[in-house]
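**Entry details**
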Amino acid sequence: MSRSVGKAGAAKRGPDLPQNFSVVDLFCGAGGLSEGFRQAGFTILAGSDNDPDALATFALNFPRAQSILGDLRRDAVKAQILDQARRATVLVGGPPCQAFSQVRNHSRLIDDPRNSLYREFVDTLRTALPPAFVMENVTGMDQMGVREQILADLALDREYDVQAQVVDASDFGVPQTRKRLLFRGVRRGTRMSLPALKGSGATDSVALARFTGDRKPRYQLVVQQNLLSMTLADALADTENLTAVTAAQAISDLAGLPMGHRADDLNWSDLPEPQSAYQRLMRTDAPERLANVQVPRINKDTELRLCGIPQGGNHRDLQEELLDRYLTGQRWGQENGSGRLSRKHFYAYRRLHPELWAWTLNTKADCVYHYDAPRALSVRELARLQSFPDHFVFTSDRRRGPLEGRHDGGPAHSRYRQVGNAVPPLLAKSVAEGLLKELNTSRDQERIRAQVG
């Protein structure tokens, strides 16, 4: 893939658009945003992150891109990033923003020292002035009323037209509900516009409802009584329809992964044929062996509780005898003194429902359990739920011990963390395709003007 060498032009006449559209990814993590943009046809120039394990994954999957390790606030790191960002068509990233919930009165988000990484994103944008950018973050920023501040910061005194929108990944073919706040911007003078992203609307059409009675609790899909919702429910039930994807459609071909298996890869011959259009999509360009398939062991107490929880259920469905802190006499974890499960355990017993997408995944292996087998999920299964293709391999920095930017927990925990922190690539692809259409239209208009002139 060739790299763009075009630079943004003077603001008065609008920037020249390069022949090949390219991306620089700040705070890239494993590379979810980059993967989506790559699938849409962009060249990934560079990714930067302070986590050496996440950046090792980015480097493995984007070998032609420059991988920049280190704190963006350091001059040497910033210089490397700016060198690439000045060549990029689109700057993307999800800067950590620690103090948005403390914004009050006339204080500004960008002035709070805890938000220095957000400030660096804005500063990089101001210096590089690419034709377009995308910044994503948690919806909590929106809930705390800082949207207008961020829109003003990113507009750079009317250098950019900027729009903000909350989207849910499950509305874009991702088998997981995951809401993100997106800020998209295009430079004035490019004649590009920012139409709202249009998802399927599946999130508002179907939901799980809990039913109780003489038997154990059960969970069942409930469909809104309107034509669109019923159409989307039909799409959800169709294994060949990619509009909306269920957990089973995402990972049913991996159901037989053995728990505690030491090897972290296996031959495709050990797996059944794909059972849905989504599984075929994920297997596109897959390597000879499937990676990240190791399933962590769970203790006997957890297994007993999972057997007592229905598909789609959680700790609320546990019978009274399963709420004791220790069931088999094996001592594990911290004792709270009550002899019962504590509140911190309540999020550790959640089972997928095969007929609906997953809830929002976090960074831990016990954030979700299989809908059928009483076990945790492998990194690969979580990656499927995040819409990472099977050729995307999660790894870690080979250096041992503490490293600057490394999180505690070891390589296995790091891989779960990388998946859980990522932007779903299929969501990113939808964002990228919208920008690509505008970029192509703008470039065509530019060529016409040049010919007429």
